[in-house]
Amino acid sequence: MPHITFDQSLPAALSRTENLPSLPAVAVEVLRLSKNDDCTLDEMARVLGRDPALSAKILKLSNSSLFGLGREITTLQRATMVLGLKSVKLMALSFSLASSLPKEGQAGGFRFQEFWLRSLISAVASRSLARLVSSGNPDEAFLCGLLSHIGRLVISQVLPEDYATLQENTRSWPTLREEEEHLGFHNGDVAGALLQAWELPSIVVHAVAFRGRPDELPADVGEDVRELVKLMALSDPTEGILCDIEKGAPLRLIHERAAGFGMIPSEVDSFLIGLESGINETAEMLKVTLPDNLSHERLVEQAHEQVVRVSLGTKVDENRSRDRRQAVDNDRGIQRIDGKKDPLTGLPDREFFDSFLEQQISARTHGRVPRALGVLLFEIDHFGLLADSHGTESADEVMRSVGSTLRRTTRKGDMPARYGKGSFALVAPQTTPFGLKTMAERLRQMIEAEQIEFQGEEILVTVSCGGACIARSAALQDGKRLVKLADRFLLRAQEAGSNRCEIYSRVQFPGR
Q1: Does 41 share its domain with 172?
Q2: Which of 57, 93, 205, 342 meets the CB 3.0–4.6 Å disulfide criterion with 418?
């Protein structure tokens, strides 16, 4: 892989290696072992074991949603075996480097909280995208994302006044062009110089240095680098949607770029919402305090609202907006029909659920609503034993609590209902298998986190969930087929040990 030649206009304060931050000792040792072809898993585990804080982060990571292994890992040796040497090496580098960077300081008003938020978004988004498109380098993508803004941090530390002036003159995070116009150079070259001085793998150096400028990549770099840079190009608008005041333009951009990976807009929206848990988990591991922003779901809604507002400039766009709102009304308006509610939970009852689902299927069968439709079924684990051991009143209290959680936390437009004794259902009028899985896991975790007290005793409640969605409906009986398919996956979740979600991964019925 070629050696990068950096911009000669870099000032001496930035171009001299001795003025750049030094590599942490553990990271140096991990890199040394990485270059040794004879390095064993046990040897890597022993090196990591010398740093208890880093070892704890690796263990937390192995049990986080980023890896989703489905079983608890309690020892560093086991984590190294399950994750593999490459993953442990790259994640150890990621956390070691991140832990050595300042969380706050006196760098001319540098926005440290925004730096960390954007770095975490880029890391989690890049890794999630890599896994989504079956890239062979998801862990490299995480490391590149985590280091994607390190050049800005270095500039702010070495030239604080200059960078502070630049930040004051830009509404959002300074772009490469704005940095070059103001400083005569940009953070990409600074990051490249630093990571090359640290002797990080060439794939990481190139991907971070050329993030945001793929056309400038050397002609002889490998396809792995080009793929990483392409993945990271999606993290830029992702940051914009989740961090900037102006969200409409980044939303349009990410939809456009994601189409190159075969992702449709609804899948992009689900992807953006699904990043929330991974970002929060990673922030906790690195002891980074994130801003008290709205949920990802609401931020994505705001981006869509801004796109709609911009589109109202012409009569044609007004008509399109009206049609779009009408389509939403077709989805949501059904909820406004008169229907019976379950007196115990306050949710719509089974009859209302059946009616709502039937009308949603009818709208899609006749082409009025060309959107995917999903169904989730939740069943309280061991509900019969709960009533036997604590009495029917405690079971009622549990039903009320679960119903309240579903009512409070489901998206606008989705319809939760009481489905039966100890069970609930939810209709999601616009989703994908990925989005349905994300939604199901979020609701399952929130139900498990609820503290339910009955007669001075705390009752721990978990649920199992099964779900399925279809991209289109061809017959009115498809509603019953969808519920039956979701029920099959609910049974699979229960047979796998309960307190888990199983979602059908395709968007058409089996056999089609």
Answers
A1: no
A2: 342
The last residue of a domain, from among 70, 100, 130: 100
388 with 492, same domain: the answer is yes
Token pair of 5 as six digits: 């030649």
- What's the 3-state SS for 417-434? EEEECCEEEEEECCCCHH
**Could you give the CA distance from residue 128 to residue 441 in angstroms, rounded to a whole number?**
16
Does some domain include residue 323? no
Show the tokens assigned to 311.
């589109």
> Is the CB of residue 241 less than 8 Å from the CB of residue 91?
no
Q: List the structure tokens of 134.
A: 């079956």
Per-residue pLDDT of the chain (512 residues; tens, 9 = 90+): 455 555 555 666 665 545 556 677 777 887 887 777 777 777 777 777 777 777 788 788 777 777 755 567 777 777 777 777 777 778 878 888 887 777 776 555 678 888 888 999 999 999 888 887 777 888 889 999 999 998 888 888 878 777 878 877 776 678 888 887 777 788 888 888 888 878 888 888 889 988 888 888 888 888 888 888 888 888 889 988 888 888 888 899 988 888 887 778 878 888 888 888 888 888 888 888 887 766 787 787 888 777 776 655 433 444 444 444 444 444 444 444 445 789 999 999 999 999 999 988 888 886 655 567 899 999 999 888 887 777 788 889 999 999 999 988 887 778 999 999 999 999 988 777 767 887 888 899 889 988 888 777 888 899 999 999 887 788 889 999 999 999 999 999 999 999 999 998 777 788 75
Residue 484 maps to which CATH number?
Answer: 3.30.70.270
The verdict on 338 and 482 lying in the same domain is: yes
**Alpha carbons 194 and 205: distance in angstroms, whole number:** 9
Same domain, 169 and 263: yes
Q: What's the distance, CA 311 to chain centroid?
A: 28
Strands 463-470 and 501-503: parallel
Residue 65 and residue 150 in one domain:
no
Q: What is the pTM of this model?
A: 0.59
Residue 327 lies in a domain: no
Could you tell me if residue 452 is inside a domain? yes
Number of domains in the chain: 3
Element of type H or E holding 37: none
Claim to verify: residue 178 and residue 259 sit in the same structural domain: yes
The angle subtended at Cα 105 by Cα 196 and Cα 208, nearest 5°, is 25
Residues 118 and 67 grouped into a single domain: no
Rounded CA separation 412/333 (Å) = 11
Range of the domain at 28: 22-100
Give the end-to-end CA distance of the chain in Å, rounded to a whole number. 47
Same domain, 137 and 282: yes
- Rg of the Cα trace of the chain? 25
| CATH number of the domain encompassing residue 251 | 1.10.3210.10
317 falls within a domain: no
Q: How far is CA 147 from the centre of its chain?
A: 18
The first and second tokens of residue 236, run together, are: 């830029």
Neighbours of 213 (CB within 10 A): 14
